[in-house]
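Predict structure. Input: DUF1468 domain-containing protein, 159 residues.
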Amino acid sequence: MEHRPVTEIGVSAFVAAICAVFFVQASRLPPGSFEPLGSGPVPKWTAAIVILCCIAVMARGILRLRAAGGLAASAREEFTGGRPGGAVLMLAGSVLYVALLHFKVASFGIVTFVFLTLLIWALEGLRPAVLLPALVTAAVAAFGAEYLFTNVFTVDLPE
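Output follows.
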């Protein structure tokens, strides 16, 4: 697997910033009826866990930058000759995913299943051999998350 420390640090910082906003907003939610689980604590602690993971990825990226000769050398190596098509496609797919959830085109589980299947398959180069594992992984993640959030944590998800 190819490591890109500058990209890892940048993406992790961006995700951590978004999660910090979620953490602050979730702190303002009223307590749920199933405390300590519920509509406030679940997104709050999920955001906190993601922020901690981002900090770990950023620390690893900084160590790799130091080992690779610094920021300038790593940035030059990472961003020379690359095409942004994959990143643009992932961004467009993410925007479409959020829009489908917002406009309630289908349930959270179905939209997430389709999104994850396409994302996993695309990240693996659309190889036919990867489609079945992508379907299984997406089904477990999407429908498992839907069950967990709706039945265990009692969090309202888009329908």
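The chain has two domains: 1-82, 83-159.
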